[in-house]
User: Fold these one by one.
Assistant:
Number 1:
Amino acid sequence: MANVISDETIEYVGILAKLELSEAEKERAKKDMGEMLDYIDKLNELDTSEVEPMSHVFPVNNVFREDEVTNGDGREKTLANAPARKEDTFEVPKTIV
Amino acid sequence: MSLLNLTAVELGKKIKASEVSVTEAAMAAFEEIEKKEEKVNSFVTVEKEKALKRAEEVQKGIADGIYTGPLAGVPVAVKDNMCTEGTLTTCSSKILSNFVPTYSSEAVLNLLDAGAVIVGKTNMDEFAMGSTTETSYYGATKNPWNTEHVPGGSSGGSCAAVAAEECFYALGSDTGGSIRQPSSFCGVTGLKPTYGTVSRYGLIAYGSSLDQIGPVAKDVTDCATILEIIASYDKKDSTSVKREDYDFTSALTDDVKGLKIGIPRDYFGEGLDAEVKEKVLAAAKVLEDKGAAVEEFDLSLVEYAIPAYYVIACAEASSNLARFDGVKYGYRTEDYQGLHNMYKKSRSEGFGAEVKRRIMLGSFVLSSGYYDAYYLKALRTKALIKQAFDKAFEKYDVILGPAAPTTAPKLGESLDDPIQMYLGDIYTISANLAGLPGISVPCGLDKNGLPVGLQLIGNCFEEKKIIRAAYAYEQTREFTHSPLTE
């Protein structure tokens, strides 16, 4: 395997991804990511030095529209999905210590 | 009288002619669901009471001239990644196990405007990440042709439900083949439209630059009819395209004279099952005998599509799935210390293994120091793949090949080796990268009695050419129902 993923990399990517992996999951992730990157390295066979990255297949620009309210008050329905609510707000753990 | 053998369009005609009531049509679907769900598991949610109430409304709407379209009153199933107001929408994930959307996706609204009766939400690979429908938190869906085999994925539930006649048609979504590959495995017809044709508003995003909603049905006529209903320009989707043509059913003509069909040699090499190859080439011969000009050519770059796809799709997924944090909706872990621990634990407990694998890979390829080497490299490769198709479509109207290299594998054989599973999408993925429309049409059975799918790919906005070729091919084929429907 050409790509060896270190413990540090998995820790770092876990922070970016906001995932807390178990020790077994970390080992598996190291192996899977290494294998996938080996496979993805196949792209290096292609000379793309003269090619622009294509994010969209059609030539589209940013699409703007007026910020007009078209729906009604959906507060109750929206809050009904909240894992925890406090009156008319979403309840979360303390964020400012 | 059994309604079950009818296509969606045929049933719609009978409803319009008052030969069948909307309630009778819905009940026919629910009887099948009650008989078969235990074996097939196509659905995450079935809403009988709501659907029967809706059936009465639609019946009245037809009488009042509100619903005049060809599919008014016909029961439909919707993949569980499309938001449905007031109905549980899980994406087959634990993290959305309690999510009831406050609005419906645009494609679903278009269906409802056409008088559709939604019978339920279909099972899928979690967040549409998978090729077998085995990564669902709600258990695997089974292939109605042989329940020891997978239905394909990620729209496996939609395709199995149509094959098992638990509904008359369904909506799926296709990011790397998720409509066409399971349609192939389940012996149904599935179409992925040109990117931007069907609004993605309310479709829970996986890879936004690749995702596209499309129809799954019993035949090509149904697919064209459904596409006419769900396709629309939508201001709420910034990548929605205002098309010049929406009259897809006008292409349902049994005439391929002069149509130029290219067969990429690269689609018939190593890894392709011999029986699949034989059936697909036999279908090409049918079209040639009907007057199409068929020739082989080299498409090139085929082996680079999958690695480019996984970089792009996982990168987009890692960003799209950042919204699932246990704050405003969805699963929240029970024990936590502080906000960040709550995020991490909710996500780690809420997502399955394949989803975590892709979020990790996506986060890595977007991270500082790797972005150019992986993400931009993949976007440059995508540009080259698009160029290869542009070149091919200068010569050909339609590209013909298999939808998948094999027929449906057995349950439990795919997930241990992700790369091997990803290789199963080799013929479908490049159409997503290049934004092209593609259709999978059943073209025979292998020696084990499992369906083979013929794929036809068109240039952007040229759905009509693939519909025309698929329809012409279909006229020579007897429709074969899956054994569970007998």
Number 2:
Amino acid sequence: MIRFDGVTKEFPGGTVAVDDLSLTAPTGKITVLVGPSGCGKTTSLRMVNRMIEPTRGSIALDGQDTGRMKQAELRRGIGYVIQHAGLFPHRTVLDNIGTVPRLLGWDKKKIRDRSRELLETVGLDPALGDRYPTQLSGGQQQRVGVARALAADPPVMLMDEPFSAVDPIVREQLQDEFLRLQDELGKTIVFVTHDIDEAIKLGDQVAVLRVGGTLAQIAEPAYLLAHPADDFVADFVGRDRGYRALQFQPAPRLPLRSERSIVIGERPETTGSGWLLVVDDERHPLGWVEPARIGPRAVEDADLHRGGTIAAAGGSLRSALDAALSSPSRRGVIVDESGELVGTVLAHEVLNAIEETDRPERDEVDPVHGGAVSVADDGS
Amino acid sequence: MINSLLQWFTDPTNWAGADGIPHRLLQHLWYSLLAVVVAMVIALPLGLWIGHSGRGRWLVSTANSLRAVPTLGLLFAVSLWVGPIFRGDLAFLVPAVFVLLLLAVPPLLAGTYAGVEAVDPAARDAARGVGMTGWQVLRQVELPCALPLVMSGVRTAVLQVVATTTIAALIGLGGLGRYLIDGIALSDYARAAGGALLVGLLAILLEGLLALLQRRLVSPGLTGGNRAVGGRGKDSGNAPVEATDSSAGDATGSHDPRVRA
């Protein structure tokens, strides 16, 4: 557990970056600090491992005041991941990963084994181990950065916009794998981002900071979207918050219709109007075709309309609704865990399901925070 | 001209004794080495400190402006001034080395300082963030990353010094400059040209050796992605891996023929 207690950072010249911040990052959870630039989120993060020293207040790790620990020792016990990975360009990937174990004086073989293991943990080909950082893509560098932070198995990780310098597709992959990894490892993580979507996706709890470094609201993502504490938070979480909140609500009993489908390479039986779903040999949906337009011939790959998204049967209401809205036939494709087609759903059916679902209420908030959401009342 | 030069080089008397080529070459190397080593002792720690701390940048520009002082004039001035203080050869050696220092320190200082300052701020931040002490950051990250620029400073300094050590002969010291000065004084142009040629060859040789040393010292990770890793030079055209990052990193792994599983 990381506990901020009345932490203030005033820089020389009088700029107050963080103002009387008190919050708790619970053990084994991801706490996201989010806010516009100038809200002091990075400063707050960097005060945890004392890259920046607080002017007032204290930060405690599992009850121990970090201000009393030796800087280097404190930092070696905290994983640190930064925006541009910050890999050491003159060291190979494996040597980069082994940085902290080497500082801790592990023996060489153990460092080597641990580094190789981590390469796999973060989803990199072991053959990349002997390369140098410049030979990797941005996303791969970031994975190595995460591996380096994990090397000595620290209970606490600090992550400063680790995924913001890579392109959106890679970012999403990295986020998904980060969540998968966290499921296994259960680290206590403080994560800084300016991207509210990322905060909502990754955070077990999200702390919204406002310019001047004060805490505007701290809550679970679903609660934050449903009950912004004030105009600033409401504005910051954005216009689509109603829609985005759906991603936290599992789709319950959606009435699925069975969908007629043909295997790619086959000739449609009808040439009537309307859309027909095309699947592969294993019944994985590929896309839609209009038999009337392609005529009486076998369906080819090039005929497919791929605009529709696909939702998992146990997925969120958001993905189910999106599947229906994005499908050219207006029938949203639903698949099971192995990706096989189970049926389709219409938008109004998803909407019915939404209307039957409750919004998250105060009593659903994580009891770790005392069952209530602490809202800063300073200056707002 | 070529003939008399050849004659001068092949004359056995020019290869023996105190005025022989081997002896003069060693003298030349000794003065040069002394100047460069002393310059390194001064400039490297200073450059590392300026780059690491960001303080004292004015020292770099001051050192640079000292290069403008005319070498020859300074040499005579310093000899006159310190000559009486030292005895024997030292009375000449000290002024010569001092003048050479003024040439060697600026490129070394500038290279070292610029090299350390150019270290990726993210790498430096990460180095501190993972728990390196200031000394460890300098030793394990800043210095190795600065090496290419440090080495180019060393090469510039060595070239300058080896070429300029010739003037040591003007104040009665040895070295290859003797051939030049004596040759001109005696109108023995083959000797003068031979001396000049030897200085040139020595400079080229040292440059080559330093280039080799640099290749050995500098991490391949710093010299761009166009050098093969592991089997250096075995496979050419080793461009950086495509910037695709499909899940589990397989875009670079299995599809990359250069990766040996």
